[in-house]
Each structure stands twice: as structure tokens, then as C-alpha cells.
Design brief:
Helix content is 58%, strand content 4%. It has 23 helices and three strands. The protein has helices spanning 2-11, 15-23, 38-44, 48-56, 71-78, 81-93, 101-114, 116-124, 157-167, 174-181, 190-202, 205-212, 220-235, 245-256, 262-275, 280-284, 293-302, 312-321, 327-339, 345-353, 360-372, 377-383, 399-410; strands spanning 131-136, 142-148, 151-154. This is Ankyrin repeat domain-containing protein.
Length: 411
Amino acid sequence: MNGTLLISAIRAGDTEGVENLLAADADPDVRDSRGTPALCLAIETYAAAIADLLVGHDADPGQCGPDGVPPLRKAVDSGSPALVEAVVRAWSRRGLYKAELPEARDLARHWHETGVEAELRRRTGARGPVARTRVLDDEFTAVDEFSLGGLTVRDGHGAILTALEERSGVRTSFEELFDRAFTRPDEDHAVWSSATILLAHRRDQKTWDAALALRDHPDPMHRLFGAEVLRLTHLFDDSDEDRFAGPAVELFLDWAGREQDAAVLATVLTGLGELCDPRGDAALLPHAAHPETAVRRAVANGLSGWTHGFSPAVREALLILMTDPDTDVRQFACHTVAVGKDRTPALADAMAALLDDAVRRVRVTAVYGLARHDDERCVEGARRLPPVPPGASYEDDLDEVWRYERRRDGR
């Protein structure tokens, strides 16, 4: 019975239902009425989160459906990096995946070099227009989804190729990864982000120098690629040495003062904020009223008051940013005040004003900040919150209210 329910939940895209059924010992390898295994069905319906759950419950990545196509090949054909990662992880759990990688890697390269639209036309023989839609492939990255002649494929094959090369022990050059990223020159696209993330994880001088060389390129997309690799190199370094932190501070301080492109500037300012250097505030403040939202978000998130109170200039900027028309800017500024050490009453009053914000997550951040600042207004603010929307990821912040109440009642 659970098997039938599991198939129905997969077809409906009901991730929570699948999770509950697997927890109740539903068979992760159950097949539907046509003989399609659950994992293949999740791939066919682009249900990456469900594929992850099935793999976590030891679904067999070697089971084919009636079409005879193995799950890994099916996932590569789908063009979804998230689905490929789930299937490769299933093979990895069994210690067998390396034997499967060369063919999958070659298939990903074929799709990437041929192009999704061209390969779709070859496979379907269709001549009509191709439908194209931007979709999220996982929580953080997007791809384009192409539909033609009854087939739907995503264009994440470049990212899949990058991941499979890395899994195979192939060290792809900076230049090739750069060229691959520029087939999808979009910082939110999986092909672009997979290249920058992989290069940043290398944390070697050669990669650093290659990214740094892009700083003065006339094309802002080249500068953006270099800035993202440099930023992530520090962000991903959890070692005690963190040898690129010092060079990154000096680099971004100089870069922030002369960058004219808003997207590149936002990345540079984000990097400065992540470095938590006291000199960063001086570089961030001139951009607090920038016309581009992405830049103001970087400023609101990057200003620092973790170890000391804010300077008067920073305090004034945050008070303005907490009234910004952009939701993220207001929330980021409020969070910066919340975690800071500055207890100026005007800052608490600005957070209290956000208890009536039109967006619930901004209100939650305001409640969190007031609780951290031992401000009684957090209790009423929490009580007046509207119902939790499905999939909200920020509700744990409300635990700060009962911590405040314990501190208050303890006194």
C-alpha cells in the first residue's frame, strides 16, 4: 500500500509526503504500473528534492525502467545538475560510481557542445518553435528549460560536465571553465556558478592570479567572473591559515572605489562584507544610496557592528536602509542591526517600526533583533505575526523571543 502511495506522491511532486512515506518504510525501489522505478520517476518529473530523499533511503541507482535507460544517463539527458548529483551520490554510497562516470561525462559534453535546442531538434525531428522557461534547478541556481516535440530538457549540461570531471579526477583548466561559464553569462545560472565555485575551491596561487587578471578587463562580465572567484576563494576557506584573506581585503578595498558596473560592484562589496575587516565600512558607505538594488543589498548586509558599536555614519546609513523600498535591503539592514553590538535607542525604534512591515520575513527579523536587544516589544511583535507561509526557512529566529523571556524572568 505504501508503495502505491509513494508513486502517487512522486507524481504529484509531494516532497513532504514522500519523506513521510519513506520514514514509514516505503520501498524506495518501488515501481509504478509501467515498471518505472521510483528514482527514474523522480528524474522524469524533475523532482530533485524527491530524488535526494530516495537516495538517502538507499534507492538503487542501477535499476532501469522499461525504456532500458539507466538513472545516471537519464539524469544527464535531463540537463538537471541537481538530479545528476543525486544519482552520482547514490552510486558513491555503493562505492561503484567511478565505472559509470566516463560515459556520463561524454554524454554531458555532447549535450553541452551541441546545444540543447539543436539536440532536441535532432532527437525529435520537430521543426516548430522551442518553448524556453527559466526555472530553479535547486535552492540556489537556475537553468533554462526547453520543450520541443513532447520532450523537455534543461540546459545545465555544462555544469554537469564540470561536476563529473571533478568527480573523475580531471583538472579542467581555468581557461576552459571560463569559456564554459560564458556559454551562459549569468551569475545565477548553474553553468556559471559551477565554474566559479569549482575554481574557488582550488585555493591555489595560479587560480587566484588568473581571476585577478580579469579585474581590469573592459568587459564587466569578465570582471564579474573574476570577482566572484576571488570572493568565493576566501568564503570557502575554513582553514586557520586563510592565506588569501589579506590580499582579498586590499584588492576589494581598491576595487570598490573604482568599479562602475553595478553587478560587479555588488559582488566586490559583498566580498568586503564577508571579510569582516574594520576598513570595509568606509568602502561600503559611499554606496548606501546607490540606485541599483543589488548594491544597496550588499551594503546593508556588509556593514559591521559585531564587535563594537556602529560609527555615527554607519548608524545613519542603517536607519535609512531599514526604510528602503526593497524587501531584502530592509531585512538585511535590520539583521545587521540585530546582530550588532550597538544599543542606540534609535536603532531599536527602527526595528520596532518594521514590526508592521508588509512582508512577514522582515517582521520576523525585527522580532529577532528586538529580542536580541532585550526589548520587550519583541513579545507583542511575535504575537501579531501573520500565519507562517509554506516552506518558510527563517522561523528559527523566533526562538530568540523565548530566550529573551527567560533572561527577563530570570532577572
